[in-house]
Write the structure tokens for this entry.
Amino acid sequence: MSSSGPESSTRRRRSAWRAIVGSLWILVAGVCAVLSRGSLLAGHPAYPVLLAVCVVVGLWLVGTGLRPVPADRPRHRVATVVGRGLAALLSLVVLGSLVYLVPATAEPGAVAAMAGAAAVRVSESPTRITLTPGRAPAAGLVFQPGAKVDPRAYVPLLQQVSAAGYLVVVVKQPVDIGFLAIGDPADVIAGHPEVTRWAVGGHSLGGVAAGVYAARPDTGVRGLLFWASYPLTSLADRTDLVVASVSGTADGLSTPADIEASRAKLPPAAVFTAVPGGVHAYFGDYGPQAGDGTATIDRAAAQQQIVAATTTFLLLVASS
């Protein structure tokens, strides 16, 4: 016997609600895939996998929503309201995170640099970009990108660093967040026994993550490099580390005041290089960044100073 009336109407509304929520999951995942299409498959596989999972969840919700709830299945109004509330909260958190994590895609010049150059060979895996110089490397640098930045955006600058005789490995971080790849330098270092002197570093949040790794005991790293970044905790007593901080005086995110305050957290011998008029987004080729300052120097000139300060730092690491 078919049901009708208020109970049937409630079941239809419940099914429609599931179908709508499922469609939203699919829609948001699809939009994020389109927005990140330039870098979706170039970074760590975690983000595309997350998008795929959201599509599967959305399809499941749509499927269950289109399937009528049996008339004899007991339903309790309080449980239904609580369940919907939790589902709505979960959807808000997950889908909001998807939108937030859309990465800044590397500019065409940076993508082209992935082909390598005469003095530097560029190779890639799902979790690394490795820049190998044409001669035996004097030292190695494990580099952590800034938050939500396509790791390829750093290749043009780091290619110049590698050409000076250094092995550089750019970490592809899960969902492009440095704190999810803090331990990765250990794997990189273990994978290159031919390099005996290592430094870790990074841009912005990537520099913070590198600082956390360097603060661990017995890592064996000899240097720590901050690009528009600063440490999370004090490293002032780490006189065994060669430390360099490179920043821009017009940076609106890692401000000059932030960099100045970091001096107390770094060893007395730490070298600070300020690029006059440089901004946060000059440390990678991924376009302008929200909240950044206004540059008073052109990108090429600023990046030339960033590369020079970095190669000088690695020279000190190699001779330490």
